[in-house]
Structure formats: C-alpha cells, structure tokens
Amino acid sequence: MTPVAPSSARPFRQLLAGLGLFAVVLLAYGPALGGGFIWDDDGYVTRPALQSLHGLWRIWFDLRATEQYYPLLHSVFWLEHRLWGQAAPAYHWASVLWHALAACLLARVLLRLLGSAYAAWFAALVFALHPVCVESVAWIAEQKNTLSLVFYLASALAYLRFDEGRRRSDYAWAAGFFALAVMSKTVTATLPAGLLVALWWKRGRLRWREDAVPLLPWLVFGAAAGAFSGWVERTYIGARGAVFDLGLGQRLILAGRTSWFYLGKLFWPIHLIFIYPRWTIDARDLAEWLPLIAMAAVALGLAAYVWLRPGRPLGRALLAGLLFFLGSLVPTSGLFNVYGFLFSYVADHWQYLPALGIIVLVAGGAGLALARGPRWARWAAPAGAIALFAPLTWRQAHLYQAVESFYRVTLQENPRAWMADVNLGLIELSDGREAEASGLFAEAIRLYPASPEAHNSYGTTLSDAGRFPEALGEFQTAIRLDPSMADPHANIAVIYAKTGRLAEAESEFRAALRINPLLPEALVGLGNVRYMQADLAGAVSEYRAALRAKPDYPEAHFNLGYALKTLGRTDEAQAEFALAAKLRAKP
Q1: How far apart are CA 142 and CA 98, in angstroms?
Q2: CA distance linking residue 40 with residue 38, whole number of Å
Q3: Distance (Å, whole) CA 109 – CA 283
Q4: Among 85, 411, 560, 569, which is most exposed with the fewest C-beta within 10 angstroms?
Q5: What is the DSSP letter of 209?
Q6: DSSP 8-state secondary structure symbol assigned to residue 9
Q7: Separation of alpha carbons 146 and 352, rounded Å
Q8: HSE of 85 in the Cβ direction (CA atoms, 13 Å)?
C-alpha cells in the first residue's frame, strides 16, 4: 500500500482534526482534571530531597532516588514541580494533554501506514476516548505511560519517514525519540519489534538489510534496558519473594489468561477496577491451560491462513494486530516479575500500549471501509464513537477525583483488595478515626497476612491506644516480613522512648536511618531522644536534618522551636512555632 505523503493530507484539516481531538479528550476527562493525589503519586511527584539541582543529578545517577528508574520521566516530574509545585490538578492536566498529543501522533503514524486520513483519525479518536486508558491518563503516577507513548509514536513516525526516504537525519531523530521513550518507561523497548510487524503488514515481506539491520541496535538497546529494568524491579522495588516465585507453567498460564482478559476489556469495557481480584494459578489444572491453548490456536491459525493465502490483506492485518498486541504485552503478561503482581496479575494501565494493536486493527479497518462509504456514515461513525466511549470515560475518570472515595469504590468492586484496606485505613487514621482504621488494617492482615505495611499500620493504631506489647509484636512481624522497611524500626523506637528506654529508642531510630537516611519521622524521633537526654544542640541538629528531608513537616518545626526556646533563642523559636501553626492549618 502506497503511503500518503504529508503534503497531500490537507494540513488545515489535519490541524482541525487535532484540535477537535484535544477538545473531546479534555471534555471526556473533565472529572479527573480537578482531582487530587492517590496511591503512589507521592513516589513520582518530586520529593523535597530531589527538588534541587543536586536532586536532578540523583534522579539520573542514584538508583535508589526514585520510585522506579525512569530518569526522563522523573526529570519531567522535576520540571513540573518547578512550575506548579504540589498542585495536583496541574499534573492531571499534564497527563491528559500528553494523552491527547499521543493520540494525534498515532493519527500521523497511521496516515503513513493506512493511506487514509479518515481511518487514521477515526482510530486515534477511539484510542483517545477508550475507557481502558483512563487509569493511565487520570492516575498521576502513570504519566510514565502517556509521556513514553508520545516519544514511542514520535520515534515510529520518524522511522517510517526514514523507511521511505532513507535519510540519516530521520533515522537519528527516530533513534533519539526511542531512547527518550525507553528512559520514560521500558515497556516501549518493544518498539523495534512493533515496527517490524508494521512493515511486514505494509509490504507483506521483510528485507534483512533494509528492514532488520537498521533496527538491530534498537533491539539490543531495548533488551538491555528491559533486563536492567527487571533487575531494578527485583532489587530495589521488591518484585521478589514467595509471591513472585512462579513456575514456568504458571507463567505460561498467566500469559494466556491475561491476553484474553485484556481483549475482553477492550471489546467490553465494563466494570473497570483499579485493583482486580488476584487469581490463583494451578498448573496442575488442565482447564487453566485452555486460554493459552486457545490464543496459540488463534495465532497459528492466522499464520497458516496468511501463509496459504499470502495475497489476502485481511489475514495479514489480523495477524499483525494480534502480534503487536501480544508482543507489547510480554513485559507484563506474567512471564516476568512485576511488583504490581503483589496485588493483581492484571491492571488497565498495563494494556495502554498493547491496546493500540487491537484498536488500530478494528477501528482502523472500520475507518478504511467508512472512508469509501456514504458521507452520512463518515460523520455518524465518529459521533457514535464519542457517544459510546466518552460517557464511559467520563464516568471512570470520576474515580480519580478524591483519594478516599477512590479506595471505597475499589473495595466495593473488589472486597479482597487488601492494599485498598491499608491505604483507606491510613486516611482514617490521619483523620482521627482510629477505630475504623484499626478495623481496616486488621481486615488487610486477614486477607493477606504477609503484608508488612498492614502489620506496621495496625501496630501504629495499637501503639496509639497504649497497647504497647501488641504493637511491638506487629512492628516486629513487619520487620521480619520486610527487613528493608524503615518505618517499623522508627515505630518501635517511639514506644521505647515513651516508656523511658532511651538507649533502645536511639538504637531503633538509628536502625531506621541506616535503611532510609532521610526518614523525617526517625530524625525527629532521634531529636526527641536527644532533647530528653538534655543534649539540646544535638536535638536542634536532628530537627534541622528532618526539615532538610521534609521542609513542610510541622512537628519538626514545632519541636525545633521548643528546643530553641529552651536554649533561650526566643525569636528563632517563635518563627518555628509560626511555621508549624501555618503548616498545621493547611487543609
């Protein structure tokens, strides 16, 4: 199929289509634009310790500095924090705009592949409004999906230009955008394989020298980046242990089951949940192998059809769409460990990129047919897509407005989502509803006894109630389950300090700080120990260290003020008390 040159694509109409796409995306995602922070967002929105220029250096060269080692993503978050600080709606706007830009780039890529501006923009519209994308777009932490897809599609567009004209500048741009995509999220390392699938679909064959050789360096770079990302996931994020020790049979079963699950959500996007129920995988049950066998049969059947009928473009399109979908799913299909498997083996945000294969196949194919149809049908189809998908996206985007309702809806849809119990309990605890929080933590432990976070949080409620022996038991259980967790050590230290065991309290605070040298609660606690030991200068030093780690920490300001007042430095003390009062008054 001969691609349409950009000059023949009526640039003004393309601009209007792009502006229209931005408009409908902003309308559909309206409820999320004013939303707040939810789970894990604090791991991505730049923390105080990383907000300086030195913090930017750490984002690139310290593997422990950020939630995941995606240095370009965290650099963008760093820049965004410079622009609007902790204003959550601004981050939502950024994510939605990245998504709209990605949809426009998808249209430009498809214009070269499909040769029809109508089909290209229709497929882009369906992708832009499909409700399975909401989790990636409305969840601030998943800005890595929207940002990386922009670079992914920019690279694909530049490479298709290179494929047509063989200009080195196009290849350089394509390679550069590919590197930026991988540094935003490593699932985009599947791009070279995706390009080969697209070129095979376009021409019906692949040429070693012209098609494969230019992409070999990309394949090597992508494989290395994927291996490195997997190592970081295991070593620093925690994707290891009994929960992740799956046999080969279990992983293959998962790969088959996840592929059908995601296909089902693409064609029937109802009951989308933030945390889906976690499956139990039994490789000894022959019935559990059926999804894998069925998917393999579909793929092999299409391959046989294409081989026997090489001149039929429909068979090639079906196989290409399926191969892109399955290939892009590989990193999160169950074949490799992903930290999120602790909660569920499937998540909507894991199919943000793979969904393109099916959406382009179905919506792009429909667009090609409609482009040759009557004028009324060409107007009715996008109107119908907006009427179908926009309300579903609008409804799903409401979930991301407020964190408490977010967890309550999640538990309503999936009562076994123990992580939602823990996080909702923390909200209840911060609002002073300790009984409700304690019940949620206990329920999380019942559902998943191996959760160190649940034990640590439950221990906190017990400690606040003065039930110190029981609380110590919960904290010690949390440490046994996750020795790399600093908070339980700090919580044990607080109990020791309250009961006058200052030497033991200091030892536990230092144990917490060996794990996390910037844990503000441990630094404040150590300052309190210093104060009780009449070491006022040491207390001031620890409180100031806590404020370097967390400048907006009211307890650190208040305790520092108290220590300064004791030292007779009244003016400095009053300034700290004023800051503490101002911070505590913030909503």
Answers
A1: 11
A2: 6
A3: 41
A4: 85
A5: I
A6: S
A7: 9
A8: 3
Is the pLDDT at 236 greater than 50? The verdict is: yes
What span, in angstroms and rounded, lies between the C-alpha atoms of 541 and 567?
Answer: 13
Are 569 and 551 in contact by the 8 Å Cβ rule? The answer is no
Counted residue by residue, the chain has a size of 587
Contact 547, 521 (CB under 8 A): no
- Using CA atoms, how far residue 401 sits from 30, 36, 132, 141, 429, in Å, is 10, 6, 17, 14, 20
Q: 5 pLDDT exceeds 70?
A: no
What CA–CA distance (Å, rounded) separates 546 from 536?
Answer: 15
In 275-418, DSSP assigns E strands to none
CB atoms within 10 A of CB 56: 19
Yes or no: say if 326 and 298 are a contact pair by the CB < 8 Å rule.
no
Buried b (16+ CB within 10 A) or exposed e, 388-416: ebbebbbebbbbbbebeebbeebbebbee
Given a contact cutoff of 8 angstroms between Cβ atoms, the answer to whether 560 and 547 are in contact is yes
Average pLDDT, stretch 212-240?
Answer: 88
Per-residue model confidence (pLDDT) at position 42: 83
364 with 114: CB under 8 angstroms? yes
Task: Indicate if the pLDDT at residue 239 is higher than 90.
Answer: no
- Asked if 511 and 475 touch (Cβ cutoff 8 Å), the reply is no
Rounded distance between C-alpha atoms, residue 234 and residue 242, angstroms: 12
Q: Tokens 């499937």 belong to which residue? A: 346
- pLDDT per residue over 365-402, tens digit each? 999 999 888 989 989 999 999 999 999 999 999 999 88
Best CA proximity match to 256, nearest among 289, 298, 215, 231: 289
Q: Decide if pLDDT at 2 tops 50.
A: no
3-state DSSP assignment of residue 390: helix
| Per-residue pLDDT reduced to its tens digit, 100-133 | 999 999 999 999 999 899 999 999 999 999 999 9
Q: Please, are residues 225 and 199 in contact by the beta-carbon 8 Å criterion?
A: no
Least confident piece of the model among 4-13, 131-140, 420-429, 534-543: 4-13
State the pTM of this model: 0.89
Given a contact cutoff of 8 angstroms between Cβ atoms, the answer to whether 144 and 192 are in contact is no
Residue 345 has pLDDT above 70, yes or no: yes
Give the containing element (helix H, strand E) for 98.
helix 88-114
Strand locations in 66-181 (E): none
Three-state SS for 122? helix
| Amino acid type, 41 | D
pLDDT band at residue 3 under the 50/70/90 scheme: very low
Name the residue among 153, 133, 136, 154 with its Cα closest to residue 145: 136
Cα(234)–Cα(29) distance, rounded to whole angstroms? 34
